[in-house]
Amino acid sequence: MISMVGGCKKRCHTSIILSNAYRDDQNKLYFLFLRKTLSEIVKVNRIFQSKNADVTKITQDLIAMHRCLMQIVVEPSHLSKLSDENLPNFKFLDHILPLEHVSYGYDFITVSNACALNKDQVTYVKQRCKTFVTELITQVKKRIPENADILLMMKRFHPRIATSQAKESIAPIGARYRSTFKDIDDLENEWSAIDSSAWDVAMRVSSDLPV
Fold first, then answer.
1. Are residues 194 and 97 in the same domain?
2. What is the spatial distance between Cα 198 and Cα 206, in angstroms, rounded to a whole number?
3. What's the pLDDT at 18?
4. Which percentage of the chain shows pLDDT scores above 70?
5. Least confident segment among 82-86, 138-142, 159-163, 182-186
6. What's the Cα-to-Cα distance from 7 to each of 1, 4, 15, 21, 81, rounded to whole Å?
């Protein structure tokens, strides 16, 4: 009973602290920004905690989160040109947006326009938000596997994609492992022929089935 009372008091104390923090408009703005930004982190974190997680899927989601975070503070003209495979090597710090062009989110902008904070106070919060995201991107980048480009390319070997006539080239994979694949053109020819070969096999199997 005593422990239950103690736990209740602790939760109440935490609630009071948070309530007081929200009364400060600067804190409120920062929390609104964090709510927008950290939602992606929570999604990916759940995937990492799941059992039997697909490493390819995890890498895809990690890259997607990395791109999502960069969209907040990086110039769109540079970011839009990057494929997922090249994203981890992008030097994003060279293309950071000015403070007034950072994407803070609708709620942040709405509250900042309506609250009693002056321009300098809002600017301080914006700089704090920008610094946070910049550091977060740096930390996420460190956690992306060095072979992320290969892991992302592995999805091209999915049967549905491999047997499609509009499949992507696997030349980049062959070039990465040049010691194994001596002739990239031969590799590409074999890759291109998979869809017709798979179709021929399917036709032979279906012809053997009883009518």
1. no
2. 12
3. 62
4. 81
5. 159-163
6. 10, 5, 12, 21, 52
Check pLDDT > 50 for residue 66. Answer: yes
Amino acid letter, residue 30: Y
Global confidence as pTM? 0.67
Q: Are residues 138 and 103 in the same domain?
A: yes
Whether residues 45 and 113 fall in one domain: yes
Q: Which residue has the tokens 């060095």?
A: 146
CB 170 within 8 A of CB 153: yes
Residue-wise pLDDT for 20-47, tens only, equals 666 789 999 999 999 988 887 887 777 7
Residues 170 and 130 in one domain: no
Written as one string, the DSSP assignment of the chain is -HHHHHHHHHHHHHHHHHHHHHHSHHHHHHHHHHHHHHHHHHHHHHHHHSTT--HHHHHHHHHHHHHHHHHHHB-HHHHTT--TTTGGG--GGGGBPPGGGS---HHHHHHHHHSS--HHHHHHHHHHHHHHHHHHHHHHHHTS-TTHHHHHHGGGGSHHHHT-TTPPP-HHHHHHTTTT-S-HHHHHHHHHHHHHHHHHHHHHHHHHS--
Same domain? For 34 and 134 the reply is yes
Domain count, the chain: 2
